[in-house]
Amino acid sequence: LQSHTDQPQAYYLRFEHRRPITERPMLLTPIEYIDGASRVGVVIGLMWGMFSVLAVLCIAAYSMSRSTVFLWFGAVVVTLMFTQLVLIGYGGWRAWPYSVHLNQVMGWVSATVTMAAAAWFCAQASYARDGHPRLYKLLAAVTAGSLLMACVMMIHPDFVPRDLRNLWLALATLAILASLVWISLRGQAWNLLLLLGAAPIGVAALARLSYNAGWVLNVEAAQAAGVLSAMVGLLWIFGVLAWRSRAALFSNHRGAALSTYDAASGLMLPRIIEARLPAMLLRGRRQKLACGAMMVHWLNQAPSHDEAGDRKRGGALSRIGEILRRARGP
Fold it and tell me: Which of 4, 67, 231, 320 is most buried by its number of CB atoms within 10 A?
């Protein structure tokens, strides 16, 4: 628009669109529009790729470890990805372009469902049910309250005031972070690793809520913080869960080995030999392998439970095994 006078003039624009508009309209130059569309496309592509890979990894980890913690973490990944896509406007563009109702409520519904999944995941991953029953009840209450609020807003969006929605999401975020801090300080220090991944996601959620309350004016900064923190935080949490699952797996294998073999000599325990020896002899006969068994009994040896006696007996048995292997020949 060009004017031949230097006096300020007012222009009124009437805008019509075939899809519902829920965001703030802006006037952009073509270059600004192309740059913004390119950035949004890159962000959406990264989100789809990162969150999809995390979801597949969660399913694979559950199939290997049979730990339901990975399933709950996968629920957090999926719901958080959906929430981020709704908040940047992808749902209104692609999923439900002609529904005013869904454009108005899905941002709040997806956010509360994500909060419920995050609270329940923290309750399961931190073992709060066994060590901290009060915190477990708090996280369960956050989960139930978030799901109830999501159902109410889906049916009647005006039933819950906007300020109450912001307050509930802020209190739920602070409750989850405070629970992880408390559990970490009360003895389970490894939960600090979960907190390092959850903290940036919680801060980004609070930044978005601050924008809803009018304290933050730049919505693009809040959206970028939410997307980046979600990617980095979820990757960190998955790494922590994988490390924890690996340590638990090694502990289980070590326990199984100690219940099967003698720690001092490395030989099978007598009760294991009694159960497996017939099958071992039968397999050797079928495969035409020469095999035998030798029982060693300590004579004139008083029962002793001290560590030195166990070490001597273990060393003697290991020496006997070396002599028998040498005598067997090639």
Answer: 231
How many residues are listed for the chain in this entry?
A: 330
Mean pLDDT of the chain: 76
Cβ 245 vs Cβ 67: under 8 Å: yes
Residue entry with tokens 């999401």? 169
Q: 19: which residues sit within 8 A by CB, 6+ positions away?
A: 92, 97, 98
Which band of pLDDT confidence, cut at 50, 70 and 90, is reported for residue 193? confident
> Residue 209 in contact with residue 169, Cβ under 8 Å?
yes
- Give the C-alpha separation, 68 to 210, whole Å: 34
Residue 299 has pLDDT above 80, yes or no: no
Residue 103 and residue 208: Cα distance in Å, rounded? 17
Any residues with CB less than 8 A from the CB of 23 and at least 6 apart, and which?
A: 89
253 pLDDT more than 60 = no
CA distances from 16 to 1, 11, 21, 33, 242 (A): 19, 16, 10, 19, 51
* Predicted pLDDT of residue 23: 56
